[in-house]
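Task: sequence design from structure.
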């Protein structure tokens, strides 16, 4: 009987990976829900103190991460929307093809996917991304962000951990099985 883990093909996917799509959907739902709360309960650019280093501050981001290219004249909206759409499709295919024994890499991809789609929804429906988490220390302010940005950041950290610490182990195991 053929091993389903060895099947090849662009459209081959493993049903066990639907759980990772569930993690992406959870990130999207939490992101959109918290953005809705921020939009309906906060006044634009009026900080609401939460902790000595944290405010809720509703802001609109027309650029990329940390407002990069936010004043570029509008073309960046189409660029970032297109990039997010293409990357999301690639990540869905990649995620659905993950072997069953992997945990960190698919979690990383799922979080990045969920964050990208969460911000993509804002770009397509609003023309900007809703940000509301504002972290600072004295006069040093980190750019405002949202749950989608947090999911992307956490996913990227997990991706780096997988790349630098776990990939070598997978290669060694694969070589040992082939010997």
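Answer:
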């Amino acid at each position: 009987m053929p091993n389903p883990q060895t099947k090849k093909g662009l459209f081959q996917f493993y049903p066990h990976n639907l759980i990772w799509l569930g993690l992406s959907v959870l990130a999207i739902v939490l992101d959109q829900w918290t953005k809705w709360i921020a939009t309906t309960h906060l006044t634009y650019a009026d900080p609401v103190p939460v902790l000595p280093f944290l405010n809720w501050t509703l802001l609109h981001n027309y650029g990329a991460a940390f407002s990069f290219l936010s004043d570029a004249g509008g073309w960046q909206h189409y660029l970032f929307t297109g990039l997010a759409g293409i990357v999301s499709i690639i990540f869905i295919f990649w995620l659905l093809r993950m072997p069953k024994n992997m945990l960190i890499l698919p979690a990383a991809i799922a979080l990045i996917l969920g964050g990208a789609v969460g911000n993509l929804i804002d770009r397509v429906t609003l023309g900007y991304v809703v940000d509301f988490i504002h972290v600072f220390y004295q006069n040093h302010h980190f750019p405002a962000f949202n749950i989608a940005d947090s999911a992307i950041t956490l996913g990227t950290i997990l991706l780096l951990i997988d790349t630098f610490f776990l990939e070598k182990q997978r290669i060694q195991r694969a070589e040992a099985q082939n010997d």
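The first strand starts at residue 48 and ends at 51.
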